[in-house]
Design a protein that fits this description.
This protein is mainly beta. The chain has one helix at 2-15; strands at 20-26, 32-37, 40-41, 46-47, 52-57, 62-72, 84-94, 100-114, 117-131. The chain is elongated.
């Protein structure tokens, strides 16, 4: 039982990715898109399952929401650049009248299919928002 429990803990920890910090400047009193996430197969350039999103640390001076969107992949996607995929956009809305810095964390999970095995990848991104 201990070996199984140790294996499960190791599997979960190995599936966590290091947090990325995203910095954005947004206007006061307005909802702004601050990020997006999508998964796709790099060899065939086809969309995979839409990531599941959750706020893991709430902002102190605003709200976070998610919206399913369709967008073109950027040039960072290599040969898949320009292909349309479905994903999730992250939106931030500052509290009315707030100006300054705010931050929050978003966790997203996605299925990863590598060499015939299915894994779930958990990623936590930190957003640092400057409201002007």
């Amino acid at each position: 039982m201990r070996i199984l429990l140790s294996f499960l803990v190791l599997l979960f920890v190995s599936s966590l990715a290091h947090a990325e910090t995203v910095r954005r400047t947004v206007p006061a009193n307005k909802t702004s898109g601050v990020g997006s996430h999508a998964t796709y197969n790099r060899s065939q350039c086809v969309a995979l399952a839409i990531p599941k999103m959750k706020v893991s640390k709430e902002p102190k001076n605003g709200t976070v929401s998610f919206k399913q969107v369709s967008f073109k992949l950027s040039k960072d996607a290599g040969r898949c650049a320009g292909r349309r995929v479905n994903g999730v956009a992250v939106h931030y809305k500052p509290n009315r009248g707030f100006r300054g810095k705010d931050d929050f964390k978003v966790r997203f999970t996605m299925d990863m299919y590598t060499a015939g095995s299915a894994k779930i990848r958990n990623v936590v991104d930190r957003y640092i928002i400057e409201v002007k």
